[in-house]
Amino acid sequence: MTTADIVAQERSLFIKAKALEHGFDFCGISKAGFLENEAPRLEKWLSLNHHGAMGYMANHFDKRLDPTKLVEGAKSVISVLLNYYPEERLPEGDDDLKLSKYAYGTDYHYILKEKLAALLASIQEEVGEVNGRIFVDSAPVMDKVWAAKSGLGWVGKHSNLLNREMGSFFFIGEIICDLDLAPDSATGDYCGTCTKCIDACPTDAITGPFVVDGSKCISYFTIELKDAIPEEVQGKFSNWIFGCDICQDVCPWNRFARPHTTPEFNLPKQLSGFSNGNWQEITEEVFREIFRKSPVKRAKYAGLKRNIEFVISGE
User: Fold this and answer.
1) Active-site positions?
2) 247 and 206 in contact (C-beta within 8 Å)?
3) Mean of the per-residue pLDDT values for the chain?
């Protein structure tokens, strides 16, 4: 082992230890470079229009596949996971209107960016000048692919990252930097012959193992789509009014999910025990108060009302 290898290894161990100190649950490292295997998959996915109205997914094709085009001199991708599985949950019975668990608390973009900024500052304090950028869904970065290459899990048949210790209820973030670091090895695929996520999807959005037609996903309809929701999916939302957790909830690996330790992700007191009547009668003033810092504000008041009315009328 060369001196450079020893330095890279020591720096990697330091970064992983600091990541845990800053509140992340897992941290892994991979070498920055062109994602050769992903290029044809992404091209096919886009050609099939699986991105629907999410036009931004077709932008910056080259940057999406090569982090060195995002950060000059990039040598390493530091991937982190932050658990968001809640201890207190909204009612999720067959008749209850449902909100995706990732949207319970403060928008994760704020929390992850703050923690990643602190981690990058720690790295710069230890190493010196580092050219690095923080990414949390803020640029064309294939976060699940990099997390998998960093040994943090594997991409399951539902296209979410799965971790053997805690399942899939994680947010993912990256620091792409010009440091030479010791990369981790990718893990295997532990989905086996299981097809529970595919079988459970009410809109058939998982068209086959590891292939998700985003334009058929309940999360797409309730968050991304700004037009009227197509009538052909009426009655198929299983009462989800913002996002959907079905494929994760049925996944056997999520029996290992345990409550997060990030207070900002907790269910707001105003939402505790929220009933269908509360959802149907929600005013714009209440919406703004409860969801001021929440991912739900992406749908806006009109969008959430649209979703609620669509679900209620399809029962």
Assistant:
1) 137
2) yes
3) 91
Q: Looking at the predicted structure, is the pLDDT value of residue 60 above 80?
A: no
How far is the CA of 3 from the CAs of 65, 126, 130, in angstroms? 31, 18, 20
pLDDT for the residue numbered 211: 86
Task: List residues forming the annotated binding site.
Answer: 64, 137, 161, 172, 191, 194, 197, 201, 217, 219, 226, 244-245, 247, 251
Give the span between the Cα atoms of 45 and 288, in whole angstroms.
36
Beta strands in the chain (DSSP E): 26-31, 76-83, 98-99, 132-135, 154-155, 161-162, 170-177, 206-208, 211-212, 240-242
Please determine, for residue 34, whether its predicted confidence score (pLDDT) is greater than 80.
Answer: yes
CA neighbor of 99 nearest in space, from 286, 244, 266: 244
Tell me the per-residue pLDDT of 244-262, one tens digit each, with 9 for 90 and over: 999 999 999 999 999 999 9
The CA distance from 51 to 184, in Å, is 31
Phi, psi at 236, each rounded to 5°: -110, 10
pLDDT at 40: 59
The total number of residues shown for the chain amounts to 315
CA distance 189 to 157: 10
- Positions at the binding site for cob(II)alamin: 64, 137, 161, 172, 219, 244-245
Give the CA distances from residue 84 to residues 25, 79, 107, 137, 197, in Å, rounded to whole numbers and listed in that order: 10, 16, 11, 16, 20
153 contacts 162 by C-beta, under 8 angstroms: yes
CB neighbours (10 Å) of residue 86? 18
Contacts of 208 (CB under 8 A, 6+ apart): 198
Q: Where are the domains of the chain?
A: 3-87+104-177, 196-313
Instruction: Outline where DSSP puts E strands in 13-57.
Output: 26-31
Q: Token pair for residue 34?
A: 């062109």
The pTM for the full model equals: 0.92
